[in-house]
Amino acid sequence: MTGRNLILQRVVGALYILAGIGKFFPRLESVEGRLTDASEANRGTVISGPVDWLDRHPTGVMWFVATVMVAAGLALLWNRRGLVIAALYGQLLMLVLFVVILVSSVPEILVMDAAFFAAALYLLYRYHSSADATVAASTGSTPEAGDLP
Fold first, then answer.
1. CA–CA dist 66, 1 (Å, integer)
2. pTM for the whole thing?
């Protein structure tokens, strides 16, 4: 991972940790309030059943989301390839679910989550493209390998 990419990865990781910790402070973000608003906004839609269930369990949702966000952030900071890739894929799934659940009640979520989604896609691209280059180099399929005496 190059310097800029590692900086991006660590910034995203730190932001996820802060966002996860922020879930415990209703003045920063009230998970209960967000879920209630989402339940009302999604009433009568296909996802109203699951959103209503989440709304009935705000403390569990808060703990789950906070734990997952902090764990993903720590994985990004720790910088172990397998954990980073798993955390990035998990973040993509989580962001999609956040948008599906919250976009009706909090449309501005698209802007913030789009930035995190783009960062995760970019980092995954960099990780996978660097893995392809490493595999190609180790199998001798690079142009330079054929030029060796």
1. 27
2. 0.83
The pLDDT tens digits of the residues spanning 14-55 come to 999 999 999 999 999 999 999 999 999 999 999 999 999 999
Confirm if 71 and 13 have CB atoms less than 8 A apart. no
Determine the distance from the C-alpha atom of residue 62 to the mean position of all C-alpha atoms in its chain, rounded to a whole number. Answer: 16
Q: Return contacts of 27-32, CB within 8 angstroms, 24+ apart.
A: 31/58, 31/61, 31/62, 31/65, 32/58, 32/62
**DSSP H or E run through 59:** helix 58-78
Neighbours of 80 (CB within 10 A): 11
Model confidence over 103-143: pLDDT tens digits? 999 999 999 899 999 999 999 999 999 865 554 444 444 44
Residue 4 identity (one-letter amino acid): R
Residue 13: which residues within 8 A CB-CB, separation 6 or more?
72, 73, 74, 75, 76, 77
**What's the token pair of residue 137?**
């180099």
